[in-house]
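Form 7-S
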Amino acid sequence: MGRGGCAESYGAALWPRRAPSSAGTTIRPMTGAGDSTLEAERDANPTAEKPATAPSPEAARPEASPTHRRSLWRHSDYVKIWSAATVSLMGSQISLIAIPFIAAVVLHAAAFQVAMMGMVEMLPFILFALPAGAWLDRVRHRPVLIAGDLGRAAALITIPVAYALGVLTIWQLYAVGFVTGVLTVFFDVADQSYLPVLVDADDLVEGNAKLQISASAAQILGPGLGGGLIGLVAAPFAIFVDAASFLASGGLISLICKHEPKPQRKLAADGSHTSLRQEMAEGLRYVSGNRYLRMIAGSTGTANLGSSLAFSIFPIFVYVELGLTPGLVGTAFGLGGVGVLLGAVTAAPLARRLGVGPVIVGSIFASGPATFIIVFLPHTPLVAGAMLMSSMFLTSFTGVVYNINQISFRQAITPLDMQGRMNATMRFMVWGTMPLGAIVGGTLASFLPLRTTILIGAAIESLAFLWVLASPVRSLREIPRTARFEPAAD
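Output:
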């Protein structure tokens, strides 16, 4: 159960999910002619309000900041949110191994039932992401983050308790997945919107990169720890560690000192307060009316669709058909997780050397072939483990490079009063494809070989780069330093 907030496609998931997110870092759950300006393209509605317009970096870029800035390691509030991410991501890696094992091996769930776990968990992003984003632009974010951590801890604890009482069923896993999914919707949007409050625009790439280092440490150490714990205790009891990590994360976030002013309610032309529905529509117009954001959303959403389709039946494939052990799978994930660390430390230098746009396009292009490796996993444990590790390494590296650059770009060009709705709308678009992928994957696996189902998902994921390749994103050279406090003019 992931903490979220660092990468576009790496949020809470009940089994391994790979996609370039969101968000995304942890392996979850998962994405024309070059115009050098960043002016927003208007929606067909000519009456769209000015706050729904993306800023132009040439017009809105303030004076350059000093060359030498204080490291974020000396920013006490950032260190707290970084520490919270590190702790909860480490715990979540244990659930990443344990919960799919519980479904596939302990409860003997069928392929379609396991795939439905993904659908149930991601459904909240379709149902609640847009209203969550509009609501979060009205409230302070820190209390939402704390409540999200504590609520997910409470939900997870019910799994080992039910197992101890002998009443654990697949339906309870569905219920826990849905509840944690709802809480993750609010947490994830609040988390991505909170970072621009804590740090300056010039520090966003560094801040996101350091959060990815948290994920790398968790991804290297966590899966092996999870597999080892399952070998020592029953898988459901390993979930206690993830619940404890959420409690620790909530406690650390509660110690953040920076005052976050309560956002002012938006006013309509007649001076009245705008409704939640109007603000949701404004967020949709902001993203869909911006040629950069909508193409990034299309690319990430396509990648998430393909990876969700392929990995919806991953636990059945590796644990039942191939007979691999949780320890082997966890070790392969952990070793492959070194790609997260490499991606975190090279994302910014690559963007400076090659340009932000080419790095976004190239990283999501390279992520597709990683899923094809899964198709050819053999029954031989050591060979399968080595191939799985290679797939995870490639996915981790490309996903982190993609997410650090595209998320930092989105945060930099978006005014603070639009951050919640922008992030929620992006989540709605890019994670909304994941329940569909899970349903299709489970259905296909009911009458096609599991390898064929994974192959179809890999083929879809490999096409995701076409969105950004055919857009002005490919020509971006750098992250703009935009005055995010001021809505941009047309």
